[in-house]
Amino acid sequence: MSRADRLADLVEERELDLLLVTNVVNVRYLTGFTGSNALAVVGRDVRRFITDFRYVEQAAQQVEGFEREQGPQDFLGALTDGWPPGELRLGFEDDHVSVRRHQRFREVIPDRIALEPAGGLVESLRVVKEPGEIQRIAAAAALADEVYGVLREQGLVRVLERDVALVLEDEMRRRGAEPAFDSIVASSERGALPHAEPADVPIAAGTLVTLDIGARLDGYCSDCTRTWATGELPDDLAEAYALVLRAQEAGLAAVRPGPEGREIDAVAREIIEAAGHGEHFGHGLGHGVGMEVHEAPRLARTAEAALAAGNVVTVEPGVYLPGRGGVRIEDLVVVTEDGHRVLSGTTKELVTVH
Ligand code: ZN
Ligand code: ZN
């Protein structure tokens, strides 16, 4: 069954006639279109794809299984007509539609069609990856491993954090990918900030450096954090590393179909709490990765969705010691029928890079 067919089933289950898909990532997922401006309408017997004049050629090459239309100059004006007859219930992606755009929908779409909030339907398909999607994510993860290998050869000490980030991103681009998010390079006390921006500061010897990178390749993302030493570590940082590694491996070992996201989170969190560092682990254990670098399902204290085969998630506990430094170790992992398979290949043993 095609993705659009499966979506049509969900649309019916929600007692809708049609879904208006405007999130461009969801449009790509359903239609294969990689441009930046398009929408789709999906229902039992409806497969409409609308783009603007710039993308007509591209759509002809990429989009299959949909009726392709070129919208007018203002694009959404195409929604004035082309609808099945009668009163209809049209779902829209309320988690992605601005108030202004919603007003525009109401202006152009005939009054006999009711607009119903229905965000998350396409995302609920995206959460279970097909084998071809897992291959792409694995390729993006392998590419990030190569980039880490290059950096390990080049070294870290006395290099500006910002220059390390440039190397990481340049190496991704050389391999045909682009950064899925701004790379994190956080050394010494900046490592205690989970989302530190790379600073114009040289990396010192004898400390920790947290590196968090993701590649986007062929529409799919990877996400991998490693924390490296730049020499002999003070005891508190060495202990923090050993603790985070233990928590990470325990969380990873719990990943399989069945448990809720919060249960996996708890496995790692309890280890960090038992060591007295609960207050130093302020974020969730992980998140889904796919066409977007943060998507469902989440592994967090409040995440109730159960893991299922085909989910791809990160497992990334951290311990952040204010004024001292931080450790985060993040693997990308696919949930399989009988457990999981780790996609990140870079070693998690504490490595020293001078
Ligand atoms: Zn990350
Ligand atoms: Zn992550």
SSE run: HEHEEHEEHEHHHEEEEEEHHEEEEEEE
Question: How much strand?
Answer: 15-25%
Major sheet: arrangement of strands: 4-3-2-1-5-6
For the record, give the distance between the C-alpha atoms at the N and C termini, rounded to a whole number. 53 Å
Uncertain regions spanning at least 5 consecutive residues: none
Mean pLDDT: 97
Number of distinct beta strands: 19
Each distinct ligand? zinc ion
Please provide a written account of the structure:
The structure is a single chain. With 354 residues, the protein is an alpha+beta fold. It has nine helices and 19 strands. The protein has a six-stranded mixed sheet with strand order 4-3-2-1-5-6, with helices on one face. α3 links the parallel β3 and β4. The longest helix is centred in the middle third of the chain and has 24 residues, at 131-154. Bound molecules: zinc ion (2 copies). Residues 212, 223, 225, 330 line the site of one zinc ion (ZN).
